[in-house]
Amino acid sequence: MIGHDLLVRARRAVVGGAERGCAVAVRDGRIVAVLSLAEAFGAARSSAEVVDLAEDEVLLPGLVDTHVHINEPGRTEWEGFATATRAAAAGGVTTLIDMPLNSIPPTVDRAALQMKRDAARGRCHVDVGFWGGAVPASLGRLRELHEDGVFGFKAFLVASGVEEFPPLHGAQLLEAMKEIADFDGLLIVHAEDADTIEAAPHAGGRAYRSFLASRPAAAERTAVEQVIEAARATGARAHVLHLASAAALPALRAARAAGIKVSVETCPHYLTLRAEDVPDGATEYKCCPPIRDGANRDGLWAGLAAGDIAAVVSDHSPCIPELKRPLEGDFATAWGGIASVQLGLPAVWTQARRRGHPLSDVVRWMAEAPADLAGLGRKGRIAIGIDADLVAFAPDETFVVDPALLHHRSPVTPYAGQRLTGVVRRTWLRGAPTTAEPRGRLLVRGEA
Q1: Verdict on whether the full-model pTM lies above 0.90
Q2: Residues with Cβ < 8 Å from 390, sequence gap 6 or more?
């Protein structure tokens, strides 16, 4: 009699915040038992398929990436659901949530959300959910998108880079958070202050130091304080996106201590790259907020270790190669965004292990915390009742990043030529291997 569809046995697995040997039993796409290796002997006889991980592999839960720009429809030539989700699966990401820009139209109303879902259906290699957008024109109608199942609402406090997704200014942030508080939603914020950036030096030219000066750390710190104050005044839940400046962490720490509902994430590129290593004209490194110096990077790692930063997500934001202005190398005119959904796990692990962090920390930052942020109760852990999203990861194997071997649409990455540690060898989505056949589901808040 067959009791399980799949049994995965691993000498090392990250379960319950620690590493141990175990066997994961799967039925109908869910984990139904987490057994000791001794107990797994009997379970193997009643399992349709048994997979034994290699001695150098660790079993991880599938990662959850809540910050991905897929851009389809409207800018599918930049990135689409098929390519982005294939890259995600190759990088051990089994669940992602798509940002409401840079697709056309942006996901700021019900019709646009339906267009997103129609574009994604049948093309996804991992499970996909959607954020909505909070822009001036959508204020007063955010509840509609909430009821249609978006996981929260993204807002900018500075120009987004695309005209169809304008920022919230002044009282509009407070208005959005009051509206979102009424239905206990979540506002996620690109926190850079427009006035501070307007007063900063112009970014023109090939010099990275010029671009860095044009997006100063003070812009992040000021905007984070605005978000904190709005959350305090309204009682709304707020989340600061892609924190690049460690200088904003004390204010966030104090806010949480005071009971204000605000959380924060950072990204692999802020944890692994340094401003002093960026060559002039190397616009593949451009992102907003920018990659800062090594001392700041150390501050972000300290924030992770202290629990001040909850999550690490990619902010995968690709474009067609020519928009990076590779010939001119002009940071002012190049598109700002880094494509990294496939490389986030090895990039973070390469630095984390050097700093003494175990794999269980990486799983907490890149699987558990993002799942908790989005309310994805069936994702991000190896536990009974959770979706059987699993990754066989070789933490000691190294590789050199070859952009031609990445699955996202355009082969542009600042990691090109870097040696990273940690290789994803296999990924399972709800108990089945991710293959060329897309079988990802479209997720709805409250049903995921």
Answers
A1: yes
A2: 8, 24, 59, 60, 61, 62, 382, 427, 428, 431
